[in-house]
């Protein structure tokens, strides 16, 4: 997932990254509920801080990173500074 995000971070993909984050988080919570037979109260107790903020899901030193936190860096506009064989140069 991380490589996919770094490939597409030059595009306007913040909304898609957020949707993928939500999907991954929902599937992981569903897996934890099924595997450990936790109800929603157990999930909140184990994966949330007392303030209500969610903790990152991690195991054995591997953490599920939020891909929507990766900054979107657009290509900068360079105008006529890029050489182009089809457009004659203006002096």
Task: Describe the model.
- It is a single chain.
- With 91 residues, this protein is mostly helical.
- The protein has one domain (2-71).
- It is built from three helices and two strands.
- The chain has helices at residues 2-8, 14-36, 40-47, and strands at 58-59, 62-63.
- A two-stranded antiparallel sheet has the order 1-2.
- β1 (58-59) and β2 (62-63) form a beta hairpin.
- The mean pLDDT is 86.
Question: Which tags fit this structure?
Answer:
3 helices, 91 residues, 42% helix, elongated, mainly alpha, two-stranded antiparallel sheet
The general outline is elongated
Q: Profile the largest sheet.
A: 2 strands, antiparallel
Find the count of extended strands (DSSP E, 2+ residues): 2
Tell me what portion of residues adopts beta-strand conformation. under 5%
Cα radius of gyration in angstroms: 21 Å
How far the N terminus sits from the C terminus, by CA atoms, comes to 46 Å
User: Largest beta sheet: what is the strand line-up?
Assistant: 1-2
Return the structural class.
mainly alpha
Helix-strand string:
HHHEE
- Give start-end ranges of low-pLDDT stretches: none
Roughly how much helix do the residues carry, as a percent range? 40-55%
What's the helix count? 3
Nearest-integer average pLDDT: 86
Domain count: the total is: 1
